[in-house]
Specification:
Helices cover 16% and strands 36% of the residues. The chain has 299 residues and is an alpha+beta fold. It is elongated and about 90 Å long. The mean pLDDT is 91.
């Protein structure tokens, strides 16, 4: 079998070649194990487990150090650097970094990871046979993930983004002792902003799906609590504006509401409805006003 970068193989120590290291062999092909890559003591005739990689001169080499990721696995790797031309460099635990090319990340820059983020990744080869990283997909993650317990309903959990799409953002929720994680979806209306690959966020479990144990998630509070919080936000805007009035109402377009308040139109209308029901505001000709008795309390 041909030796391939990214694999963990058992090889025999063939001979020492000072000052470089030892040659390892599978009986057909030799590969150099540099002295700096040796763990413990070895001698010709020993069988050692080695990880194969390419050095900076694209030569196939061996190391006895265990990387964070090998071919066929999924790993959570930290972004340690960004190259303006090539892509993202990930920490793989070998004293050298693994390239995640730009072609393997979202086109929209705001969806791409930042230094310090951690991404779910797999190993692959480029056209020259060198090791590169690819973002893990659902087919890679699903076999590792577990079902969410029903007790997760309405709980807040930590989750890491693995695939941001227009329809929503796919994440893996931390599962603790339950296992690797739980796959979840934050539908677009339940996002308060765009989320980037590798970002760690806190989300609320809106629903645990019985059929597959996956979860529907939200970045928003439950409607009752969210309405109170959103109402306070609108009220504070009115109190700060000249004349305690604003040119926004339940007829304002959703795009303007999103840009000005960071709310969906439905949430904005719910908050306005609460404030009107509580007797704090009124609307007139597409404007919203603080009631006179409320403005007096501000003077």
């Amino acid at each position: 079998m041909r030796m391939e970068a990214g694999t963990l193989v058992s090889l025999e120590v063939a001979r020492e070649v000072p000052p470089n290291g030892y040659f390892l062999t599978d009986g057909y092909q030799d590969v150099l194990l540099p002295y700096a890559e040796i763990v413990g003591k070895i001698a010709p005739g020993d069988q050692v487990e080695a990880f194969l990689y390419h050095d900076t001169q694209d030569r196939l080499m061996a190391t006895m150090k265990r990387p964070h990721l090998i071919m066929g696995e999924v790993g959570l790797l930290e972004v340690v650097d960004i190259h303006p031309r090539f892509g993202y460099f990930l920490e793989i635990g070998l004293g050298r970094n693994l390239l995640l090319p730009y072609k393997n990340v979202p086109e929209l820059e705001t969806l791409r990871p930042l230094v310090g983020d951690k991404v779910f990744a797999t190993l692959a080869h480029d056209r020259q046979g060198r090791l590169i990283a690819k973002l893990a997909l659902e087919e890679d993650l699903a076999p590792l993930c577990v079902r969410a317990p029903s007790t997760w309903n309405n709980q807040w959990v930590k989750a890491r983004v693995y695939r941001p799409l227009q329809i929503g953002t796919f994440v893996v929720c931390e599962a603790g002792v339950l296992g690797y994680g739980v796959i979840g979806l934050i539908a677009a209306p339940e996002r308060t902003r765009l989320l980037r690959v590798g970002e760690l966020i806190e989300v609320r479990v809106a629903f645990v799906r019985e059929e597959d144990g996956r979860v529907n998630l939200s970045m928003r509070l439950p409607k009752e609590l969210g309405r109170d919080e959103d109402a306070e936000r609108i009220l504070s805007v009115l109190k700060e504006r000249p004349g305690h009035a604003m040119p926004f109402s339940d007829k304002t377009s959703s795009d303007i509401i999103k840009e000005r308040f960071g709310l969906s139109k439905a949430a904005f209308k719910r908050a306005l409805g609460k404030l009107m029901k509580d007797g704090l505001i009124y609307q007139e000709e597409d404007w919203t006003y603080l009631k006179p008795e409320e403005t007096k309390s501000l003077t």
